[in-house]
């Protein structure tokens, strides 16, 4: 399929002479350049040692472990792990075909049925059972559209099918965020810089404090409130994500440069809102408010669900965060290990996985973002086996518990520890703020005294 | 894809054929309700035979004229504007999950009353689409259709006084469409239909040709069999003598030839050597050429949109484009985000991560992890 491999072309190529690796082997990988180990020799080694199966004692310590989260792995181990992942990937890429096409078509068909059924039921929503059924069907339709179809198609998982309706670069989804902006903020920013605090803007979506490494400031006292609002209005949160509005807090937000993006968002939001809150309600005539309420509920249900699944992908207990410094020299192998440690799976039944767009296999999704997601379940067995041998943590748990640990983190990080409060007062903004508070208090006291 | 010269009459026909419902479905309101998807996205499920934007055809008949061909009759959606005899259409079929697009020339009459499209597909030994259709085409199956394509190889208007149609093998399809269109519209001029097949058994549309010949005294059908010992009107491959039998030599004539490259070449050569003045139009069904590649060869990279070209160095196409002063969209530069995907127009590339060599014309490739193997043209 894609890429098409002709065995003798790949194995017998005397590539050394002419094939120049993407970059000099000593150049670091991420995020601006390909691979330190992508030299012809390394690639050939990777291919010939297809049987390489390392087993590493997790209690050992290597002298200069590149990732502090895994002190028992050397650079060489990380690269070996990366090669094992590449092998899993190659196996599935070579096997793409009918099965994957049939699966995604089936999901799309189900989504269309649910949407048509849901819309019709809501037009008859003045009969209460119809309203409930309509909301359920439309919510399910939007969830499928956004997750198992939209999210996955936009990762290019089905590009090999050459179907223009399933093309990752042109697909548009049933949510407020314009697909083009999402492709940038998600496919690139988040998937490349996963869980690097300060680089991955999915860490808190720019408005929440989700990591101890984000310095505390009084703004974050509202953490639980912002999180609740974000969950309810998640589609708009995602839509505004790429605008980096949080920069406004520090007075360095350049609205002029972002005008075209804002226009695109406005255009998409208007179309989405026009459809759900004007046109479909209007078709019901006097029952306008009934349909409007139904559509709004379906959107909120979808928002809460997607927020939960997505926040459980990277923020439950046990998930690692990384610093810019430790990832500066990262190789492809290091990238794979970071994807693994920075993600967390959700356990559940088949339907649960479909409704979460298989993002319940967040780890597999981050390792292989462009492999059709319905394969993640089988891939997860292979990944887990490798993780065991390398002594690597494989995070996961049921949704309610994971959600609880995420909520606990949101609340805990709202309030500073003593050290964090001190650090804030000592900081420039903190100092200024403290002075202002003291001055205001003094002024007020003086005014009160004078009045008395 | 050129929408072709058929546009005005076809549009008129189309609106006549479309009922009120389908016209309502093609309004901005319907678009807004269906958004962000296409109305057809839903119609496909509710009424597979309906479409308001895309063109699709439902197979309503499958005929196996001989061992190595299959003849399909398609009923197109109302979005199909009709075609001119001689034009072709790109059909899309799915084989093992992958969509393939191939050109076929309708062989039926282009007459306004014809509501179907007839295609005859000759099977190629390893042909992906032709083999698939031969084995799996069945009544009720849908294929994607393009607008009709081609404005050279069509019957001119006004019709010339005499017409000669020469074809070989499956090349019969567009010229048969011309013949059937001419007889349907009551054309009174002389038509000579010269067709080459290996044997009488290989002759496609034998019965149809006999029927046309019997019903229309102005039509002469010459059957030429290339294999020895066959009982045809002519024997062997095309020669000057064959042409002399068939060819009207005056200016108010037109000649069309479609078939294997060798047949088309032979005709063109005689035309040039004998300085014939009859206008000749030709077409041949060459499948797209796959370049022979030598994995050690670097070649040249051409950026089609910007008109630049550089020598390949083995570095990623993204880097080479940047060195040439272009700034292609990109993100991760490591093959995960898909931002850098770009259409490969020609050539093959190496996946710098796995070493695999891949690529076909029209395929979208990640240029950050692809390097040129041989000459490559990118849509950049
Ligand atoms: C304008 C136009 C009109 C046409 N009209 C008709 C028509 O009316 N009827 C008709 O039958 N055809 C027609 N064709 C040809 C048709 O479009 C296809 O090319 C043909 O059917 C073969 O398609 P396929 O998928 O079966 O074969 P493909 O898979 O495209 O292969 C084509 C040939 O190449 C060989 N091949 C494939 N891959 C390779 C490889 N890697 N290396 C070497 N060889 C390879 C195969 O063995 C096969 O013989 C037309 C073409 C054009 C351009
Ligand atoms: S730049 Fe991200 S895939 Fe090429």
TrEMBL record, chain A:
InterPro entries in the cross-refs: FA_desaturase_dom, Fatty_acid_desaturase
Disordered: region residues: 1-67
GO biological process: one example: lipid metabolic process
Biased composition, class Low complexity, residue ranges: 1-22
GO MF entries: oxidoreductase activity, acting on paired donors, with oxidation of a pair of donors resulting in the reduction of molecular oxygen to two molecules of water
Composition bias, Basic and acidic residues: 46-63
Pfam family of the protein (one): FA_desaturase
Every Fatty acid desaturase domain range: 130-395
GO cellular component, one term: membrane
Protein name: PutativeLINOLEOYL-CoA DESATURASE (DELTA(6)-DESATURASE)
Native source organism of the sequence: Patulibacter medicamentivorans
Record lineage: Bacteria, Bacillati, Actinomycetota, Thermoleophilia, Solirubrobacterales
TrEMBL record, chain B:
Cofactors required: FAD
Keywords: 2Fe-2S, FAD, Flavoprotein, Iron, Iron-sulfur, Metal-binding, Oxidoreductase
Protein name as catalogued: Flavodoxin reductases (Ferredoxin-NADPH reductases) family 1
Domain FAD-binding FR-type: 52-156
Source organism of the structure: Patulibacter medicamentivorans
Record's keyword annotation contains Iron-sulfur: yes
Gene Ontology MF terms: 2 iron, 2 sulfur cluster binding; metal ion binding; oxidoreductase activity
Keyword Metal-binding carried by entry: yes
Pfam families: FAD_binding_6 (PF00970), Fer2 (PF00111), NAD_binding_1 (PF00175)
InterPro entries: 2Fe-2S_ferredoxin-like_sf, 2Fe-2S_ferredoxin-type, Beta-grasp_dom_sf, Cbr1-like_FAD-bd_dom, FAD-bd_FR_type, Flavoprot_Pyr_Nucl_cyt_Rdtase, FNR_nucleotide-bd, MRET
Gene3D superfamilies (UniProt xref): 3.10.20.30, Nucleotide-binding domain of ferredoxin-NADP reductase (FNR) module, Translation factors
